[in-house]
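Tokens for chain A. Residues wanted.
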């Protein structure tokens, strides 16, 4: 099936795999799974372990970029392997720059690396986002804008009151909604990063972005609770993607057993819990 709108592609993938879970890949060369010779091997093994329980992987670009050229090779191999296993690939780099440079970022993220979606920083405004969104849309890819992130320091800026009323994150939500285009399934191709550590904001976010997919980081190690995320799934199960990194990849450190078995058990636990909310 060929789908040209990211919202449609996302809805199809979620329905097909019966999962809204995104496994984060934040490889640290010092803490690779036992037996993994390098970052590429580690990521490949993680993907193979959890592929049956997740809909996508989210590669944290900084964790690959710090390795220089070998890191870029590992990232390319990781993207290719995830695709071979039928998973969507999200690249988490939170890119944002003036319009000309934003277009170049998009060429890298969607063109050279071939992601299905990426994260972007909206604080430079609409003209800096349009080249990213337009390039993604032309390839059937999507973008997730930082609206209200999961880190405690997000309150320093995103929760500030605007002179005209409302908070900064609410203005960012309006911008994300305006930039998105809906497909036949009703979901838009521009979504929002909405931290799972602040679920009290989700109902208001849904008012401002009724058809935008939410990427929900912060579950597990950061303290976010999947059970509190129900408003994210108002447009349907594909309306929310629950992202978990350390809680899946490092599950064996708490639960015991092999890293692969522990990761699959945790991914499946999250999958069943999130699916029950939709």
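Reply:
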């Amino acid at each position: 099936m060929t789908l040209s709108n990211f919202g449609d592609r996302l809805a199809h993938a979620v329905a097909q795999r019966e999962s809204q879970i995104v496994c984060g890949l934040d490889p640290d060369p010092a803490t690779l799974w036992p037996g993994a010779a390098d970052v590429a091997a580690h990521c490949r093994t993680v993907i193979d372990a959890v592929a049956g329980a997740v809909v996508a992987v989210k590669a944290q670009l900084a964790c690959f970029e710090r390795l220089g050229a070998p890191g870029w090779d590992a990232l390319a191999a990781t993207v290719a392997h995830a695709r071979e296993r039928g998973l969507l690939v999200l690249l988490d780099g939170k890119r944002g720059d003036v319009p000309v440079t934003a277009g170049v970022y998009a060429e890298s993220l969607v063109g050279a690396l071939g992601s299905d979606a990426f994260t972007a920083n909206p604080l430079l405004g609409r003209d800096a986002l349009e080249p990213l969104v337009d390039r993604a849309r032309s390839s059937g890819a999507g973008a997730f804008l930082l609206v209200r992130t999961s880190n405690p320091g997000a309150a320093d800026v995103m929760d500030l009151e605007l002179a005209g009323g409302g908070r900064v994150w609410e203005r960012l939500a309006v911008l994300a909604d305006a930039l998105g285009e809906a497909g036949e399934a009703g979901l838009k191709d521009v979504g929002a990063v909405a931290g799972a550590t602040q679920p009290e904001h989700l109902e208001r976010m849904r008012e401002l972005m009724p058809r935008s997919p939410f990427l929900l980081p912060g579950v597990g190690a950061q303290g976010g609770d999947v059970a509190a995320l129900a408003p994210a799934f108002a447009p349907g199960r594909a309306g929310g993607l629950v992202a978990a990194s350390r809680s899946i990849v490092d599950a064996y450190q708490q639960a015991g057993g092999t890293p692969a078995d522990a990761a699959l058990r945790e991914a499946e636990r999250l999958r069943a819990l999130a699916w029950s909310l939709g």
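Residues 47 and 82 are 7 Å apart (CA to CA). Strands lie at 21-25, 56-60, 88-95, 117-120, 142-148, 190-194, 214-216, 240-244.
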